[in-house]
Design goal:
The complex is a heterodimer of chains A (115) and B (117). Chain A has no helices and 11 strands. Chain A has 115 residues and is mainly β. Chain A is globular, with a radius of gyration of 14 Å. Chain B is mainly β and 117 residues long. The chains are: A mainly beta (115), B mainly beta (117). At the A-B interface, strand 5, strand 9 and strand 10 of A face strand 4, strand 5, strand 9 and strand 10 of B.
């Protein structure tokens, strides 16, 4: 399956600071999805990026897809304690001739926010 | 909430036993994928079912098998359990967007936490 590297693996920030996690692939991606998993929880879908250079915003969260569709980032402005969790990027891989994809998750970035 | 449910929520088994995990997808979601998430790792793709047939498999041995039923429910079966099978098992359902390819979203259930002793 497609391999993605996610950095950093861990990030500790003070509440109010910004946070960014990066996702890098050696191959061109069809799309990429971002998920958040709270401690003890399950992955929750945040966003899907499909187009080259795409930028999407959700309140304090900004998602970017690189021009070459090989990297992506998630930026959180002014973190809050509710942002705690692990953020995963997950490109979708498709078999030839199929529109049904399967996700290949990175290891995630575990975010801790100190009040 | 995603509308995807899984049962049981927690399970303890011993090595060598067999286990069946269940998932109920959203109505109309004809694709279900199963993932295994070990502690501290991202979910790993096990296999995918589409309209009751297996549609792809990750790097898991044959003792991991599945079924999908017409009522949007599915099962993951694991035979001859090993200690390393201890993990969170997640199912995710999606809609085949034939009219909008490569843009379907997968919605995860809460998972089943399996502990093999």
């Amino acid at each position: 399956g497609q391999q993605v590297m996610q950095i950093p693996q861990y990030q500790h920030v003070q509440e109010g600071e910004d946070f960014t996690t990066y996702c890098n692939s050696s191959t061109t991606l069809s799309n990429i999805q971002w998920y958040k998993q709270r401690p003890g929880g399950h992955p929750v879908f945040l966003i899907q990026l499909v187009k080259s250079g795409e930028v999407k915003k959700q309140k304090r969260l900004t998602f970017q897809f690189g021009e070459a569709k090989k990297n992506s980032s998630l930026h959180i402005t002014a973190t809050q304690t509710t942002d705690v969790g692990t953020y995963f990027c997950a490109p979708t891989q498709y078999d030839r001739g199929s529109t049904l994809g399967r996700l290949y998750f990175g290891r995630g970035t575990q975010l801790t926010v100190w009040p | 909430e995603t509308g995807v449910t899984q049962s049981p929520t927690h399970l303890i088994k011993t090595r060598g036993q067999q286990v069946t995990l269940r998932c109920s997808s959203q109505s109309g979601h004809n694709t279900v994928s199963w993932y295994q998430q070990a502690l501290g790792q991202g979910p790993q793709f096990i296999f995918q079912y589409y309209r009751e047939e297996e549609n792809g498999r990750g790097n898991f041995p044959p003792r991991f098998s599945g079924l999908q039923f017409p009522n949007y429910s599915s099962e993951l079966n694991v035979n001859a359990l090993e200690l390393d099978d201890s993990a969170l098992y997640l199912c995710a359902s999606s809609l085949d967007l034939a009219f909008l390819p490569f843009q379907e979203t997968q919605y995860f259930g809460p998972g089943t936490r399996l502990l093999v002793l």
